[in-house]
Amino acid sequence: MGVFAALDLSQGQTAICVVDHDGAILAEAKVPTCPDAIVAWLAARFDDLERVGMETGPLAVWLWNALTERWVPILCLDARHANGVLKMMPNKTDHRDARGLAQIVRTGWFKAVQIKSHAAYVNRALLTAREALVGMRVRLENEIRGLLKTFGIMFGKRVGGFRRRAEDIIARELAVAPELLPIFEALMQARHDILARIAALDSRTRAIAKRHAIVRLLMTAPGVGPITTLAVVAAFDDAARFRRSSSAGAYLGLTPIRYESGEISRNGRVSKRGNKFTRKCLFEAANAILNRNLGGSRLRSWARAIAERTGPRKAKVALARKLAVTLHAMWRTKASIRETIMA
What we know:
The chain is an alpha/beta fold. Helix content is 58%, strand content 14%. It is built from 14 helices and eight strands.
């Protein structure tokens, strides 16, 4: 009979615990967080490993790939599920966490997390970097507006956008206070550099979308551009991971939470599980379909009927969920948006 092991990861060291089929602890140790060190420790003591588990986290993807290449039967546990067991322990230490994870792995009472392909993580890194740069641009613009208010200058809105209005303020309204010019010129230069980096990432995104057949197919859906499509493809990675397309909405946290106990039975808000950026992109696409003439008349009519009953915000969430389901169905069947909706 095989044995079960668990890894509690940290940047410096990893706690390892090995248990048998009855749950008795066979060995414990702390080794450097390095695939070779972990494999060497396990191989020197056990040759009948049945399962090795670890929680999801920042190091999980790298370590899972490295240990899989070394023929370790490694799997990832959903950190939320594991936390439900580990929090029952009165004291939290790395050794205790490793023991708890080992017992979870032994009993099989866990939800295994699928590690996506290398390309999916590369695309996610691209979108995450772009989102970070967009956030920096927004913070810089807000900082410029806020600092100008201190000196009685209201930024407001002008034809030509933010840059033209800022240049007009620097040239005219700040001329009476030359000591402020270097400050705002530095902020505008930083904004210009960030916009250049965003444009470069946008160009890379379009190039990837042009080469990727599935991305091109999904972009035929209304309101869905290369960023949203690439986010969906990176989140799903493989269409075959869901037996039903209806599961795609729940995977992205776009279905209501259900609570039932005794005579109490109610639906709550959407769970907001899964990738936040992908969910945000789908919501923005739903907003565009509902409020702009972008095609998708069947989807718009469906969402407007919901808006009349429950309000526009819930209608947009419902439409975002329907978009997720539709995009997955298009990917799985390699069919166009029209064929998918009519099916």
